[in-house]
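DUF2087 domain-containing protein (Pseudotabrizicola alkalilacus), 174 aa
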Amino acid sequence: MTRTVTPLPVADLSAFTRSLRQHLQAQPTAPGHLALMNIVARAAGFRNVQHLRATQTPAQQTPAPVLDQAQITAVLRHFDAQGRLATWPARTGLQRLAVRALWARLPARVVLTERQISDTLNRWHSFGDAAILRRTMVELKLVTRSPDCRDYTRVEAAPTPEARALITVLESRT
């Protein structure tokens, strides 16, 4: 489920914090998440969080990318200290994420022969199976392959937030 970012306009910070303190002191125990969100919304001059959201235009509300940190951590275990894919993950979701990191290392807008793409992939993995990497990239439409399977071209597409985070971590290792 994507989370919506709701900006909170506060005209007077002093009045806001004074109101927030009064609302918090009136609570017998520490408020829960939703109760605290309602307290903050009331301190900003709204009836509750729903009222705050209702005053926002759709352009002001942008979905925040929610990273699956556990998946990124799980995939990172398959990469060595130099940023090479050391083992092929057993889970399909981890394979797809790992391949996206290798996809980022392919040259953009360049037609590669099968030998060239294999050589490039061999530099970035150490388990000796460039064919499975090529096939997976073709299945995920990360690269296109000519009908005679001789030429490969990287497909330009924005990576997922998880892939972007993984690529950033692996770039720091190289």
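The CA atoms of residues 14 and 20 lie 10 Å apart. The longest strand covers residues 151-154. ok done for today
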